[in-house]
Amino acid sequence: MTKQATTGNASQRTVLKGGTVVDSRGERTADVAIEDGLVVEVGSSLSGSRNVDVSGCVVAPGFVDLHAHLREPGKEEAETIETGSRAGAKGGYTALVAMPNTDPAQDSVAVIDFVREQGKRAGLVDVVPSGCITLGRKGEALAPMAELAAAGVRIFTDDGNGVQDELLMRRAMEYGKGLGVTLAQHCEVSSLTKGAVMNECQCCTSLGLPGWPSIAEELMVFRDIELARLTGARVHFLHLSTARSVELVRAAKRDGLPVTAEVTPHHLSLDETKLATFDTVFKVNPPLRSPNDIAALREGLRDGTIDALATDHAPHPRRDKELALDQAPPGMLGLETALGVALSVLNVDLTHLVRVMSINPARIAGISDRHGRDVQPGAPANLVVFDPNATWQVEPEHLASKSRNTPFVGMKLRGKVRHTVFDGEFTVFEGDAQR
User: Residue-wise over 268-278: b if at least 16 C-beta within 10 A, else e?
Assistant: First the structure.
């Protein structure tokens, strides 16, 4: 039976008691009082009409995912904005950036408004639509970026496709610079990856599978760093997967270029050998890489070269993932397992974890006015409460996503969300979604 939070509304005073508050200022033990959708007091021995014991837990700004495929409109069999939002809330997220590879694509104000309104209707997280860089994500003509930016879009991407045309990407960056928005690139030179299903390595040769070379990612990372140098545009690199990509971004940051980057939990935790079983759940774009790449990605996240942990949550219906390896679509679920994977494989302190899962993503997405804020009076009450020491096993049938394609089945993870608070209300209470 679903546990229910104490009845009431956002005008009641709720106090999260005895937790460790973690934000950009570090860690401290404090109670957190919430009223009218805001944090109203942080201190000791606070009380309210609703007191929730969170001792042993972390209280932090809610997580922000820069990279979620919510599939609606057009692919509701795999996920809807409501089910994806519920999965996000259970994972501790209060905001999800919705990728634009929907049908129709998010290249018009009408579709952007639809996605945003569906998110509001669900009321579980802040659904933040991204806009396409090119019409229909076809890479042939620019989308109406000025019109979309006027409608509130702050991040543009053709995710699922990389923009192959160098001149078109230069023009997009020039427009993006003038509009003050961020261009997020899926780094893949498609002519180098045709037919590929896994990382190009000794393993793929022995399995007789076509390989996906690292250079296909790294060439586009290099190209867009140089275009950012030329135009001054803000560029964000999606789901980086190779050691050389990390080095390229590190050098660009040393040069003071306006570039940011993300890495996924699966690229931090799973390597290329997972595909030795031909299990399509491990097929993803970009592919799982080598242990050396994993080590470089972890170090890049630890030292600040990589700014954000983003899920690339990519649900697919069972029948599609049951196709042959060369036909099955790439992608994995990620929203409900991201925290557990991160705490299980990363050697970072809690302040840094919150920085890469909340503070930095909110800044990159352009929503730091309401997400990723320090836990202090006046801040919006968009919060996550998690037990960093709780252990659990991933059981697909208990996930909130409409799909079941998680690569972490049976894996023992450390770190579990207890509560998620969005706009001052519990969307998740004691691990159970409240809507």
Answer: bbbbbbbbeee
The answer, yes or no, to whether residue 4 has pLDDT greater than 70, is no
Catalytic residue at 36?
no
Contact assessment for residue 74 and residue 102, using Cβ atoms and an 8 Å cutoff: yes
Q: Identify the structural domains of the chain with CATH numbers, from first to last.
A: 14-59+377-433 (2.30.40.10), 62-365 (3.20.20.140)
Residue 213 pLDDT exceeds 70: yes
Residue type, 77: E
Q: Provide the token pair at 261.
A: 């980057």
- 193/408 Cα distance (integer angstroms): 26
Q: What does the DSSP 8-state code read for residue 56?
A: T
Which residue type occupies 388?
P
> Catalytic one among 126, 312, 387, 423?
312
Terminal CA-CA length for the chain: 14
Q: For all residues of the chain together, what is the average pLDDT?
A: 95
Positive or negative torsion for Cα 24, 27, 28, 29? positive
Please state the φ and ψ torsions of residue 190, each to the nearest 5 degrees.
Answer: -65, -25
Query: Over the stretch 122-153, which tens digit does the pLDDT of each residue have?
Result: 999 999 999 999 999 999 999 999 999 999 99
CA distance 303 to 291: 18
The SS3 call for residue 335 is coil
Q: At what angle do helices 109-122 and 81-90 cross, to 10 degrees?
A: 50
Note the pLDDT of residue 7.
38
How many Å apart are CA 222 and CA 226, to the nearest integer?
6
Question: Rounded to the nearest 5°, which phi and psi values hold at 51?
Answer: -110, 125
| pLDDT per residue as tens digits for the range 155-170 | 999 999 999 999 999 9
Strands 14-23 and 26-35: antiparallel
E-state strands within 130-284 = 155-157, 182-185, 198-199, 211-212, 234-237, 259-263
CB 406 within 8 A of CB 394: yes
Question: By CB neighbour count within 10 A (0-12 exposed, 13-18 middle, 19+ buried), where does 396 fall?
Answer: middle
Alpha carbon distances (Å) from 59 to 44, 352, 420: 14, 14, 10
Strand ranges for 229-272 from DSSP E: 234-237, 259-263
Residue at token pair 């070269």? 305
